[in-house]
Amino acid sequence: GSLPIGEVSTEDGFRFTCRLEKEDIVYGLGEANRGLNKRGFRYVSSCTDDRMHTETIQAMYAAHNFLIVAGRESVGLFFDYPARMVFDVGYTRMDTLAVTCQRADLDLYVITGESPYDIVRQFRRLIGPSYIPPKFAFGFGQSRWGYKTRADFCGVVDGYRKNHLPLDMLYLDIDYMDHYKDFTVNGEEFPDFPAFVAEMKDRGIYLVPIIDAGVKVEKGYNIYDEGVEKRYFCQRADGSDFVAAVWPGDTHFPDVLNPEARAWFGDQYRILTDAGIEAFWNDMNEPSIFYTPELTAQTRAQLEKAFQDGSYTPNMPARKKPEARGDYELFYHRSIAGTVRHDQVHNLYGFNMTRAAGEAFERIDPDRRFLMFSRSSYIGMHRYGGIWTGDNQSWWAHLLLNIRMMPSLNMCGFLYSGADLGGFGADTTRELLLRWLAFGIFTPLMRNHSALGTRRQEVYRFENQDAFRHIIELRYGLLPYIYSEYMKAALSDGMYARPLAFAYPEDERAKRVEDQLLIGESIMIAPVYEQNAVGRYVYLPERMKMVRFRSLTDREETVLEQGDHYIGIPLEEVALFIRPEHILPLAEKGGQSVEEVDFENLLLLDFTIEESTYEYYTDDGYGKDFENPANRKVFRKSAK
Ligand code: MIG
After folding, report:
1. What is the bridge-based pairing of β-strands 386-388 and 417-418?
2. CA–centroid distance, residue 50 to ligand 1 (Å)
């Protein structure tokens, strides 16, 4: 039938089409490849563990089926459909948006509004409020796949503390566990884990352990035994527990779509919270599958045949992704809607794993905030946690992708988000890391993470520590503002990182800018994302005051007119732009951890022509008394 926008057909599966006018911009899709304007490519919602984010990939770890067609009028579209969905955004025909999926069994929400930002707010009201992490989660975190021994972890903290580089979080990747068993720790390295957690906390460091989706198949491992006994794992059609090989070898997947199993899995987090842990990241929850026993048998047969008849190619099934191999058709959930085959609800798995944790935290301590973020997600998961954008590479292109993705994630409610700064795969460089950090200081989740086997990229490994110190200290100086803006966005269904177009809807130039962002209400940023650049062109939609930071205290202010400017931004500096009649509060003393930052005595940078005001939000950072009027006050600056 006909909608305010487009056509729906249910003849052969589901198909929505609408015409795209030449000037229309298509926003949305959250965690997706390519530009901020999604036009000109094809994107697939099918949560996938693909660690090579080249420009051609269509499916990433998340499924965020919300888009906005913005033109003379703007319309928002949310396709609430839990399985594979294809968004052809002017790919087959440049003037057509086509959204298709296999079963015409979904809810389509059509949201009209006066502007794209108005539509975002309405959508966000519909899907519920965004997750709010504890304050320490706005500090800087160091991570690396490969830290294993107690000495590895202590060495990293020493590296930071000795060099006076601020740090709040240290991530535990899979090697902290006993044989990759969820909710266990390697007892040889950590004979007294709670003592280790406490010792780190004394040094101002929160440990953030990883939790993987698959539970190791091993008799005597209580979580395995209990899950099998209570039938809490996903099962095959014949009722046997489904086996998927992941890091621990054979695993079972907790059936997080079954409320009882979800509560049970969530309760396991208590093992670590009892040890003093307050922060987690959930991984491999697409769910990622290396192989299944079924498919290896089939694969072997296919390979043998291919060798015999000479049709072998390196693209044989063994190398394909779980979706292509059919793994997701092999197991079932017992959801509230009855028994359902995994492939039909595939995109809800990571969401419900993180929801399991979020719901458990409410039981563990309803008055406290926990840090939680996930790799896989679906719209709605933003109520329980944030996300990181998975395995990027140490490529300049991925710094730009990070910049462009931030506002799209915000549109979908994922405010607490960020990418692996410096790049996960491949070898980083000092220059790339510095430039990436200079952008990363503005992302709520600020984490340096890298893969096993790549060049070490803790910041103290590179020459001239001062440069890194200045950038990270600037983050800590900006924390009162970053936290205030985050909280205001979360509490009002707003966006923390916005495209310029959302603030300057009448400005045709601003609408096309994809490499500058508004961070909160007061500032615009224009990160450098090219090797050997000594500056860049910046478009100013209005007169602004540029503040160039050589360090938190060594600043230079210049008022710039509306229009295009070439701005010199040397490698070790950060520039930002204060909007007219706006204030940027700064904690000028910074701190080595969030705890040390003074959120009360602030220096107010401003660009006042007549009068600037700023509504400052602050709270204790750990409780949930968000609506307390004492959390808000107004700063005012007048030219007179
Ligand atoms: O198959 O735990 O995206 O951040 O370091 C790789 C090891 C599994 C993927 C995550 C990455 C993490 C890595 N994990």
Report:
1. parallel
2. 11
